[in-house]
Amino acid sequence: MNEPVHVIGMGLGPADLTASHLALIERAAVLVGGKRHLSYFKDAKALKKEISSPVSGVLDFVEQYMAEGLVVVLASGDPLFFGIGKTLITRLGPDKVIIHPNVTSMAAAFARLKLPWQDAAWVSLHGRDNMPALARAMDDKDLLCVLTDPENDPLAVKKQVDAHNYAWQMWVLENLGAPEEKIFSMDEHTDLERGFSQPNVVVLQKGELAAPSGPLRPGTPDNWFVHEKGLITKAPVRVLSLAALALSPDNTLWDLGAGSGSVGIEATLFLPDGFVYAVEKNQGRVEQIKVNVERFKVKNLSVTQAELPDGLGKLPAPDRVFIGGSGKHLDQVLDAVATVLNPEGRIVVNTVLIETLHLAVSVLEKKGFDVSLTQAQISQSRNMPWGRRMEALNPVWIIAAEKGKV
Asked: According to the model, what pLDDT value does residue 400 have?
């Protein structure tokens, strides 16, 4: 019966190998690994096979030579942390593979920085365009390790950091465990033309809330607002929605299902003599609205925490209403709003759901509103290593309805 394949994590290098690891390598009939790993064992008598593309060829080789004696596969870090371990188990079966874990680059990075990492998250950009995952992790977590590659390098990570609404401490750790190991912090004084030695990893630690890069304006960049996991009316759609509201300087605006408050806050630019009443059911988002109001020094907006349509009875009658979120109660919300909306008032509803589109149009037309529809299908550029590509946002229906004269 063939002996199982032993997959040995090298950690950061040969110094991290234990006596039992070295004994297995010494006994191996076949030694498989990357060029750098095999170079550490030039004197080993084993038949050597370098891991190269396609990996299927390496797997064929390993399976073929299992009958010749012990096969040992050398892997970076921990073989089951973005290593070859999973691939070998899938090909050979779990009973035919023994994994010897070792120190990962993530563990080593936090050890070098003396940062406890039990609550940390990781994002891999290695060989993949995964910036959206990094953006989400930065919203959710305070401590991150980012696995990079020559294209998705620390400079690409820094662009994401600079666009975030929190300040981040950013460290780059190059050649961990090697004599040329280097660790440095990236800030505004870093030479961005220096290039980066491979391999490297990035550690990010969330700091204080960053100040907006500029004053409130039509189409204020999304990242200037504090918001939850991208739950914000995107700037291009926000501009179209505000245009559909057709605000007059002294209007009273209700911002219902206000989320981060971006629409209501930006609307204050057009309401020097008016006022915005934001209503949001989620306490965390209510706090975000308050933070955003403070960030942009808005004076004519108040926020109420309530489940719609509750919380509307005590508000002054609106001239304009924006509905960005109402859950499953849109018909009830529209009924309540239509009753108190001032003559020649306007309601704008944003939705990505066809069902909500049909419901809103049906209810509003039955109530005698003049309804018009706009579908916004917007793509925004995303930088790539050698240029730009376009990334589509979710299509949004903007439903604009005008009430007639009494």
From this structure: 97
Longest dimension (CA), the chain: 95
Domain count, the chain: 3
Query: Residue 137 belongs to what domain range?
Result: 106-209
Using alpha carbons only, what angle is made at residue 221 by residues 219 and 222, rounded to the nearest 5 degrees? 110
Which helix or strand (DSSP H or E) is residue 262 part of? helix 262-267
In the chain, % helix, strand, coil (3-state, to 5) comes to 30, 25, 40
What are the residues whose beta carbons fall under 8 Å from the beta carbon of 358, sequence distance 6 or more? none
Residue 166: pLDDT band (50, 70, 90) is: confident
Convert the pLDDT of each residue in 259-294 to its tens digit.
Answer: 999 999 999 999 999 999 999 999 999 999 999 999
Domain of 258, CATH number, reads: 3.40.50.150
User: What tens digit of pLDDT does each residue of 238-260 get?
Assistant: 999 999 999 999 999 999 999 99
Domain boundary among 103, 124, 144: 103
pLDDT digits (tens, 9 = 90+) for 314-358: 899 999 999 987 677 899 999 999 999 999 999 999 999 999 999
Question: Which CATH number covers residue 168?
Answer: 3.30.950.10
The amino acid present at 253, given as its one-letter code, is L
179 and 228 share one domain = no
Confidence of residue 209 (pLDDT cuts 50, 70, 90): confident
Same domain (yes/no): 99, 119: no
Q: Which of 103, 136, 163 corresponds to the end of one domain?
A: 103
What pTM was estimated for this model as a whole? 0.63
Show Cβ contacts of residue 156 under 8 Å, excluding neighbours closer than 6 positions: 125, 131, 148, 383
CB 175 within 8 A of CB 181: yes
